[in-house]
Design a protein that fits this description.
Elements: E1 5-9, H1 13-24, E2 28-32, H2 76-89, E3 96-97, E4 101-108, H3 115-119, E5 129-135, E6 141-146, E7 148-151, E8 177-180, H4 181-186, H5 189-196, E9 199-204, H6 208-221, E10 228-230, H7 249-252, H8 268-276, H9 278-290, E11 300-305
Protein name: Flavin-containing monooxygenase
InterPro entries: FAD/NAD-bd_sf, Flavin_mOase, Flavin_mOase-like, FMO-like
Organism: Tanacetum coccineum
Length: 308
């Protein structure tokens, strides 16, 4: 069988796994990463970020954490080193093109296929090609042909959740600086500290990243310029690991949880089972909110001077 060319967009965790899997199946993968390093959201985040999932449930099945990492919830640097070691061990780096931004994906060919044809099941494939337009760091544009495209950009990649304001009531009338948490996370750690130092900071949002940023601001400024958190709904923040002696993550990070969601090409029994289990999906999502595992890119930051 002809060796298939696969384009993978994103060199985060899912992009690295996709690249390794394609190589194991005899495909030719090429990974386009817009930043200069692997890691996705882990490559740019706030200084105090730690893994919020127990490390035993957040590791590659064929590449365990090194013995030198003894913490149950490793730091950002430890996790990045782990990902780099994984990529080096399986020789993935040579398949990654960094500072390469995908601008357009266009399929050229017939599209009247069943899901089995598109997924490659039963060794059947669409006969068309994907045209992937990429800009590199030198402002050069190149079009790549691919048999398959795998999107590994993640839930929180470059899509800030910013509310719309009526005219005269938005950030434009605020005398300080208004940024999204993604902008704060993208700063170098020293620059982020300098940005909030000596200023009064308001964090809008009560999920994990909002609270993490509020803690950082409080650590920098102390009681002289206290940080204020603004939110719409009260939430009880419970320890995620084992508030009642049982790790809650076992409820939604397991093989059984895969049966709760509908998937393309599923048969009648799987579809029926996912429908019957749908109430559990809502329950798990609510539990994740309670323990502070909600979306990590929804906080806004307002920064003003420390004096009136």
């Amino acid at each position: 069988m002809e060796q298939k060319q696969v384009v993978i967009i994103g060199a985060g965790i899912s992009g690295l796994v996709a690249c390794k899997y394609c190589l194991s199946k005899g495909f030719k993968p090429i990974v386009f990463e817009s930043m200069g390093d692997i890691g996705g959201v882990w490559a740019k985040t706030i200084k105090t970020t730690r893994l919020q999932t127990f490390k035993g449930m957040y590791e590659f099945a064929d590449f365990p954490w090194p013995a030198s990492v003894t913490e149950d919830f490793p730091t950002q640097h430890q996790l990045l080193n782990y990902l780099r070691s994984y990529a080096t061990h399986f020789d993935l780096i040579k398949h990654i093109q960094f500072n390469s931004l995908v601008k357009e994906i266009d399929y050229q060919g017939p599209s009247s296929f069943s899901w089995a044809d598109w997924s490659g099941l039963h060794e059947t494939y669409p006969i068309g090609k994907w045209k992937v337009t990429v800009d590199n760091n030198e402002s050069q544009t190149k079009v790549h042909d691919a048999d398959f495209v795998i999107l590994c950009v993640g839930r929180f990649k470059d899509v800030p959740n910013i509310p719309e304001f009526a005219t005269g009531t938005g950030p434009e009338v605020f005398r300080g600086k208004v940024i999204h948490s993604m902008e704060y996370s993208a700063m170098e750690h020293e620059k982020a500290e300098e940005f909030v130092k000596g200023k009064r900071v308001v964090v809008v949002g009560f999920q994990k990243q909002g609270l993490d940023i509020a803690m950082e601001c409080s650590s920098v400024n102390g009681t002289e310029n206290p940080c204020t958190v603004v939110y719409r709904k009260d939430r009880w923040k419970l320890p995620d690991f084992s508030p009642w002696g049982i790790p809650l993550q076992y409820l939604y990070l397991n093989r059984f949880s895969e049966l709760m969601v509908h998937k393309p090409g599923e048969g009648f029994l799987l579809s029926l089972l996912a429908t019957l289990l749908s109430p559990l999906v809502k329950s798990c999502r609510k539990q994740r909110d309670l323990v502070g595992n909600g979306g990590c890119c929804g906080a806004g930051i307002g920064v003003g001077e420390g004096s009136e």
